[in-house]
Amino acid sequence: MAAGDHPLEVSSRVIDAGESDEATNRLTNELSELADDISIVESFSHVITFRTEDGLVCFDTSHANSAVAVTEALRTWSDDRVHSLVYTHGHIDHVGGSGAIAADAERRDHAVPAVVGHEAIAARFERYDKTNEYNITINARQFGNVGRSGVPMMTGSDRFLPPDTLWPTLTFDESLSVKIGDTEFVLHHDRGETDDHCWAWVPSRKALCVGDFVTWVFPNAGNPQKVQRYPLEWAKALRKMMAYEAELLLPAHGLPIEGTGRINRVLDNLAEALEFLVAETIAAMNAGAPLDEIIHAVKLPEETLKRPWMQPIYDEPEFVVRNIWRLYGGWWDLKPDTLKPSPRAVFASEVATLSGGVEVLAERAKAVMDAGDHRLACHLIELAIDADWSNRATHEARAEIYSQRRRAELSLMAKGIYAGVIRESRDLS
Q1: pTM to 2 decimal places
Q2: Which of 92, 277, 302, 413 has the fewest CB atoms nearer than 10 Å to its CB?
């Protein structure tokens, strides 16, 4: 790591300046010592480790595909046994590396680590087994088989949850205090990106381990392909963290942060954005607005989204608004025709007939895209596709339209979904 690239130095520069051209989510699989007996291996996700008298305590285990490199990096810092793993939540990039850590323990003749996590993690793992093929499909679509900075999201297995993943051996509901050696870890449960999320306060170090409550991108509270997120509870958790006036904040993605002022600035910015989206969306719902109107009306100020820890390059506010609607209002969008709709192909065929055929729709879609209305262009080309799925020329137009649309998008989620459409139509054309 080059001089001046220590993660705490980078985060301090970026936060103090309020802008950056530096990487804030680094997947190097390299270890940095953050303080005496505290280290981070920056990966997908990070592994945060505390050295105690009774052994190492690791927060998260990284993804299965990066776990061996992460474990090797950890072992350049300490040969102590890993006493405990703490899962901040059950996403596979946080728990999938546990098998590699267990294998390392076996090679060293160490006991298998204890695993601490919220009680809902087991239900998540069971759901992953039930929806295995679905989860493999949506993650391949979201990441294009490749995660941020080239980290593959698939494990090489036919199982979404790696078979060697360790399940929690100690669970809790609302809070849990555990003492390992002379170090106390106070775990708290709050819903945010997931329903099984926990964060920890380490009093002796004035440190917060926050998992995905802070990720140095706009909060992942609206993912179009995943289960419900909880933006207001997320914001409340961030407000709780601020009250500790921590001196070190340790996230599972993005840069660690030191200094109470910097930490609380980031926490406050994230909480304020989520609170704004919830308040504005619910106000519009109470006024009787349909979903279509709300997603185009509720916007965060541009200056908010320019902050390096707030940029919508993974999830984005429009998706969060949809998730708020789903949480508070259900799935119906208030348009009466969508309550019990005609089959999409039947509707599309009727529109194509009225328009003069699918070729006319496709040509109009390309013209609209060229004029800069990406949203309308995609509506039109999808009608053409649904009216005649086998039309090769229409698939060629579709691939061209979504290629332009993808280039104009910021968030990885939108880019990934549009890339999936492009691949599908290119294969069919």
Answers
A1: 0.95
A2: 302
